[in-house]
Amino acid sequence: MNAPTPGEYIQHHLQQLALNTDEMVFHPKGFWTFHLDTLGVSIVLGVIFLTIFWLAARKATAGVPGRLQNFVEVLVGFVQGLVKESYHGKSPLVAPLALTIFVWVFLMNFMDLLPVDLLPRLAAMMGLPHFRAVPTADVNMTFSLSIVVFLLIIFYNFKIKGAGGFLKEALTSPFGAWLFPLNIIFRLIEECVKPISLALRLFGNMFAGELIFILIALLPWWIQWTVGGVWAIFHILIITIQAFIFMMLTIVYISMAHESH
What we know:
Largest sheet: 3 strands, antiparallel
Number of strands: 3
Order of helices and strands: HEEEHHHHHHH
Number of helices: 8
Helix content: over 70%
Radius of gyration: 22 Å
């Protein structure tokens, strides 16, 4: 079998493991198409995250804490401090939500540091044609996360301000009641930009990082480790920052939903 060309290699690694449920075949087209690699990896990482934190909570002690308890307490304290500074409402959901977003998004981003061919080759051994290991490099995943945040923003707008207060704010801000058509247009743009910016910022950074790792894998073996090692070290900062930004913007947007213009 001939080795793939660089173009074929890149295209293969950017192809999702997509199941078309209309035909029950691995096919990337159609409305009822599920990206099994994105779903599978994100679910597994979510279970790992919940299991680790559950074990830490179960083994927590008031005496000398272990390393796992120390790590979890530092992380929880860090997120709680950010929530107290940025969120001005009262909700028991926001801090756990922020913690979940940060850890889960970080773990999904971290998959980008695995060797490019590792999971695709394991998938090929099981008869699967494609496999992408980074869920956040799939725009469907990032939009799913941002849409959930968007729904929470709408929920808190109605919960805190009531339907009448929310409608009054939408009609009168920022230009006054006489320009309510313009106010509505601006409000729609403002609300729609939030999930779009959240999703595309995370997707763009992770897709670019994944593509660079694929391009590095095309280099001769003797230089891959040097270039790849430098990029991997830099990429650790990127995946952490992207998880942090997604968490912070979620907190800020929900906090804005509690405030009036």
